[in-house]
Amino acid sequence: MLREWPNCYFCQLCLRNLETGLHLFTVCPVSCIIWASIRAWSHCPGMNPANWETASDLSTWFFNLVGNSTSTAEAKGARSLAILVAWSIWCERNRRIFYDAVKTTTRIVEEIKENARLWVSAGAKHLATIVDRPSSE
Length: 137
Ligand SMILES: [Zn+2]
Description:
The chain is an all-alpha fold and about 140 residues long. It has helices spanning about 20-25, 30-40, 60-65, 75-100, 105-120, 125-130. It has one domain (about 30-130). Helix 2 crosses helix 5 (about 105-120) and helix 4 packs across helix 5. The protein is globular. Bound molecules: zinc ion (ZN). Zinc ion (ZN) binds next to loops. It comes from Panicum virgatum.
């Protein structure tokens, strides 16, 4: 359907590569800075882009990122955090396309941390196992 949205062939985060889902979330240097910063902050070693294997699709990448274990609190927390980071990257991509506005990676990472703490405060007990506690506690 034609919606007359701008067609941006290039990734709006790095402006160096054609935009694909795999590039945006797994290879883009801007996204990798965000993932690495979250890795340094959280207790989730799988979020280190330097250790990621090349994946052929997003679902393979996601399961490599958070592990296939479904039973541990850490695995459940890692999945929540990975979804939050991916969502934040997606929102930044959209902000740049539709609002012609840019946040720094530092600001994006700070907002991810704030949102993770908010989720923990709201009862995300598994996420609490891999991120720090809100400063008010
Ligand atoms: Zn990119």
